[in-house]
Specification:
The structure is a single chain. The chain is mainly beta. Helices cover 0% and strands 79% of the residues. It is built from no helices and 4 strands. The protein has a 4-stranded antiparallel β-sheet, with no helix packed on it. A hairpin with a 2-residue loop joins β2 and β3. The two termini are 17 Å apart.
């Protein structure tokens, strides 16, 4: 998807989030704009990010995205 891209922008809209102990998740919509050879291409995806708190820092431990078909 990002091969040969000269520019990349990602806008997000968080639709849900929660945390339990040292784990947390967010569910979001990602709008990805990719620029390549002067042309822009946009795509939308539903995404889930899972985080774990280790040593007082939050780390992304899993990302899943599925395209939103138009």
């Amino acid at each position: 998807m990002f091969f040969c891209a000269s520019g990349l922008e990602i806008e997000i809209q968080i639709t849900a989030s929660d945390s339990i102990g040292n784990l947390a998740y967010i569910i979001l919509i990602e709008k990805v704009t990719q620029t390549s050879i002067g042309r822009k291409n946009q795509s939308l995806s539903n995404a889930t990010n899972l985080f774990e708190n280790m040593g007082a820092k939050w780390y992304l431990i899993h990302h899943h995205g599925s395209p939103i078909l138009r």
